[in-house]
Design a protein that fits this description.
The structure is a homodimer of 347-residue chains. With 347 residues, chain A is of the alpha/beta class. In chain A, 37% of the residues lie in helices and 16% in strands. The longest helix of chain A is centred in the last third of the chain and has 24 residues. Chain A is globular, with a radius of gyration of 20 Å. Chains A, B: Its cofactor is pyridoxal 5'-phosphate.
Chain lengths: 347, 347
């Protein structure tokens, strides 16, 4: 065990991951498209007059204001973070006493359990149904029985692509005494009206998390935000590190949300690419599960993963219980075709 | 109390701070000089080809490599963070069990106690001597008696400007069973050889923290690093959030460390400005304490603070026990003169 490490972290290992910049990269749910030329031009123009020698605005007010305007909420309803990851950590850090229960459907975004462990919480995983859709009845039963301090609902779900309807989320909110975190990182890709943002002020235990990493193609900038009633925003601000979002990411995020039409159009293009990918996979006899996000979830014959990697085609491999599944995000049509061509001889 | 908030955080309030962009800003120990023109030109050139749509390298390897090269250590001896703040949090988060003791001299950097409280530790403050120099004997006594899990030594000290000699730090390292964090955020401004970086591999309980926010004039980029033996770096990497440093800050930090001569020259200029400020203050009958950093520490007549603020001259006010002190960082000669002119009629 690493010297000085807390005993309860003994099983944890330092996290590392290769930085891929070449090949067909379909393993991180990133946008296959570069940022818009207009944004590059804007940054070239701004970079000289940003006050880089000064600490950034600790409250990211310009960005928060732009977010508030788009969603028709008050600036007091918004908090910005280093991706939504940091906000997940702040939510858990501000609320969890040692051993407190946290609920997540399973499988879902791995950082929920990672940050729960780091914040000394105890994760309760409620399995998805066998068709990888949410089991709302089971979730509500566990919520009523255990009353977890925090409940994570990823909508659409990473890595399976399934969704909750608004009514389903409302029904969970109504039985939950704890904080319900609705993570809408992928909501721009859904063709259904699922966002809970219009309802944040109707609940004192709801927060919606959003990120610029997916539909806005800005994963490299590491910026996200949360929208909730003012009391929940204050909760996060009590533990949020000062000056958390750097000045470049604040500027880029602000530009992006003010030009969201460009990105939403791109998101629709990515959904088309996902549909093309789904059809191509089905043509090969594969069975991707229905998805409302920018990726698909499926099983593949063994050895495909390694064979693809040899061709510099990267997809995500995940072990769920005793089975192996794969998550593949939509690439450009060209990238999708490279993947499908490669799969043709492998499946 | 904020709903859902952990009971032990009940006395904590959301942190906010005004974002100052105009006036004479001498309250945050920032550089009064903009970033070098060469860096602006570099960023304009790079911003179009940075892969902003991809997650950044989770290990900031390019930056870590540049840091390792400059300090003649291995890349395994380096970890990068969102300022050194994030690394302080990771050090405490990876080591502290509930109620574990942490030591800091007092006054020193406020984030040591802030992050200790957030990580459920118990802070022991060892007062500086009455002349605001470090009380090494007292520190060693408390270390031997309490054996804190983590010991923070800020060198030079923020906010007083005093320093430890290397021998003093070695003598603390030799009696400490816990992790000794030497925060060298301001070391570039010291005219003495104080850095412990050359000795990180001689100790399994030493880590040196560095930031780009001070001598490198990059506070807005929020990037810092830690240098330690590999085991201590692994400790931090066990809890460090993935993809913590965004792609812009990684690129800028890398450029900065590779062009450190530009910044070190600037640091010398800032030290000259501090000396000019000290002399000016003494000419007014004020008594700044000796400083090895880019700021001075002193008492001022009451009401000066508000009077300066009315003239848009910002300095830092701090309450230590029952007395009020002020920390003023060196500005440009012009800014120093504005402050000194204003003080002339106030003291």
């Amino acid at each position: 065990m690493v010297k000085f490490l807390r005993e309860r972290f003994a099983t944890m290992a330092p996290y590392h991951s290769a930085y891929l910049t070449e090949g067909v990269i379909l393993n991180s749910n990133e946008s296959p498209y570069s940022v818009p030329e207009e944004l590059v031009a804007y940054m070239k123009e701004r970079v000289g007059d940003l006050l880089v020698n000064r600490y950034p605005d600790t409250d990211s007010l310009e960005l928060a204001n732009a977010v508030a305007k788009v969603y028709d909420v008050k600036i007091e309803n918004v908090v910005c973070g280093v991706g939504s990851d940091e906000l997940i950590d702040c939510i858990l850090g501000s609320t969890l006493e040692d051993g407190d229960k946290v609920l997540m459907p399973y499988p879902s975004f791995s950082m929920y359990s990672q940050f729960t462990q780091l914040n000394s919480g105890q994760m309760i995983k409620v399995p998805l149904k066998s068709d990888f859709t949410y089991d709302v009845t089971a979730i509500k039963e566990v919520v009523c029985k255990e009353q977890p301090k925090v409940i994570f609902l990823c909508n659409p779900n990473n890595p399976t692509g399934c969704i909750f309807t608004r009514d389903e989320i409302r029904s969970i909110l109504e039985v939950a005494k704890g904080l319900v975190v609705v993570d809408e990182a992928y909501a721009e890709f859904s063709e259904k009206e699922i966002s809970m943002i219009p309802y944040v002020n109707d609940y004192d235990n709801l927060i919606v998390l959003k990120t610029f990493s997916k539909a806005y193609a800005l994963a490299g900038a590491r910026v996200g935000y949360g929208i909730a009633c003012e009391a929940v925003i204050n909760l996060i601000n009590t533990v949020r590190p000062p000056y958390n979002v750097n000045i470049f990411s604040q500027a880029i995020g602000t530009w992006a949300i003010e030009h969201r039409d460009i990105f939403l159009e791109n998101a629709r293009r990515i959904v088309d690419n996902r549909k093309m990918l789904e059809q191509g996979l089905r043509n090969l006899g594969l069975k991707p599960y229905p998805s409302e996000a920018n990726f698909v979830w499926l099983t593949l014959p063994e050895s495909v993963f390694e064979a693809l990697e040899e061709k510099q085609i990267y997809i995500r491999k995940m072990k769920i219980e005793d089975s192996i599944y794969y998550r593949i995000n939509a690439g450009t049509p060209e990238e999708n075709n490279k993947l499908l061509e490669a799969l043709k001889v492998l499946v």
